[in-house]
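Task card 7
Instruction: Convert sequence to structure tokens.
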Amino acid sequence: MKGCRNIAAPGGGGSGVTVEWAWLREEVIDAPKEYAVVAQQEMNQREEIGAAPAGERVTGSVKWFDPVKGFGFVVSDDGGPDILLHVNVLRNFGQSSVADGARIDLVAQRSERGIQACQINAIYPPEGAEGGTVETMTGVELEALADIPLEPARVKWFDKTKGFGFANVFGRPEDIFLHIEILRKSGLSDLQPGEALAIQVVDGKRGKMAARVQAWETVHSDESSGPD
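Output:
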């Protein structure tokens, strides 16, 4: 098979998994009619339009991403067909979701069925994310937030429909409130129980809450690539 090969499984251990287009066709068959029509149109578009050269670095925006289905699409700044973004590629970057409209820097490769992302280099929050400002939601000014360190934590639970959830900082018993708008401003759209995070904890209007949320792997990667 052409395209992405041996994409590392989440956690970094064991053999990798190969992302193929067969899973997308299965999803289309099993999906509700309305979803299947849209997904089939996306696939037809990629089959009919030429693809970018293999291994090309691309910057663009997330068109949409569905954590339940396990995939979404990216629109390149240079135009052309949409780029498939599979959840396994996203997990290799250290997170399980990405907000619609988030800016993304990735490596795309051509397969027999279209273009797909094989590696993510960076993800940035959506430009002009909706919702209140961080200061309004947390009651803490940005100047004060700059002095608050990121702390390791794990997701206790998060309900995207309700728009909130909770996490626990390592070594602390109290729950930390997670608001979906804070996630969006960090380029995330959903969280899974047990997912590792780096968060800034503040005393908000209704108790302790996260003022900033990042996937733990992205923070660790940034520190590793920093100056000696």
